[in-house]
Amino acid sequence: MTDHSLSLDGIRVLDLSRVLAGPFCGMLLADMGADVIKVEDTGTGDESRTWPPHKDGEAAAYLVINRNKRDITLDLKTAEGVDILKKLVARADVLIENFRTGTMEGFGLGYNVLAGINPRLIYCSISAFGRTGPRKDGAGYEALMQAFSGIMSITGEPDGPPVRCGVSFLDLTTGIICAFGVANALLHRERTGLGQRVDGSLLETALALLNYHAEGYLLTGAIPKPLGSSHPSLSPYRNFRCRDGQWIFIAGANDRFWQRLVPALGLGWMATDPRFAVNIERVKHRKDLETELERAIAGYDREPLLKLLEEAGVPATPVNTVEQVMNDPQTTACQMIERVVHPRLGEIPVVGTPVKFSRMRPGVRTPAPLQGQHTDEVLTEWGYSSEEIAGLRAKKVIL
Prior knowledge:
Blueprint: E1 12-15, H1 21-31, E2 35-40, E3 54-55, E4 58-59, H2 60-65, E5 69-73, H3 79-90, E6 94-97, H4 103-107, H5 111-117, E7 122-127, H6 142-148, H7 169-192, E8 197-201, H8 202-220, E9 237-241, E10 247-251, H9 255-264, H10 279-284, H11 286-297, H12 302-312, E11 316-318, H13 322-326, H14 329-333, E12 337-342, E13 346-351, H15 375-381, H16 386-394
Parallel strand pairs: 1-2, 1-6, 2-5, 6-7, 7-8
Antiparallel strand pairs: 3-4, 9-10, 10-11, 12-13
């Protein structure tokens, strides 16, 4: 049984953030029912609006990450703009910002000021390096943080240059972690009646995601190296090229799968060879093992090989393009592509919510808003008259 209510119904969020990490945090809260009001500047607005590819002038990045939000414009460099934000804060539950450290304080909108107005406010700040330490004022972008964190040093082929991961996973995961932080702060507020500051940073996310790589170094001093598509602790566990030039990923993740894989490829002798019989030895003799497998796999076209491995009970998958996975029946079955009507584009597909519930149905309810689309609506809800709104517009405090 499901009803139409969501867990964050009635929670008001002011999303002052832009680009990816903060807006993704706001998007996740909005998907779960929060009324998320995106606050854009009166200039060009969120820079993700300028990122290609575009469809009829609308950016894909902006469309996917700002759905389910309302949008107002506000010039926080003006005293009137700051006053408006303070009035909004008085009736808000959460504020999200990802300005450079100290910027909000410079506006007169730091946590201490806003908590004085609304002690129940949860104030979520997202930064590059965190709010303390010698780099606290540094700007951070996804690729810079992949480089600084060490993640780039273990990405790419052995003996090749460090490589940026194709997905902006530090920004997006920071958004997820901060949404988790906000949800926990809301639960804590239920018990205490008080809001609090929630701080997330791309560096701390990266260090958390280094996980066993970082722990391995801390425990043993072993410095991880890039292994291409391979895994430092498992072999064979990587991409292989087939005869037709297509790629397949084979996950021989344990000894049981290994014992199935090698006879299927006509390499039965490798099952008992002491260099390869157990995983710890396979990792030690990775190069010899992969040379044998590469030679055997190069004799098969991809589809027949996938069928052969499926029959043998070996985990393997085609290395899909984005086009292929978005058109795969499994993606459809997961209901990960939703549709929504945009004011300029008409009905568009939008990547959906990646978690499902038995009693709730979060999802894409409204399209990403146009810049300032809801300014009048929101200010009216907060008690501003049409004359006051017109006066603010004349002074360019709002668009």
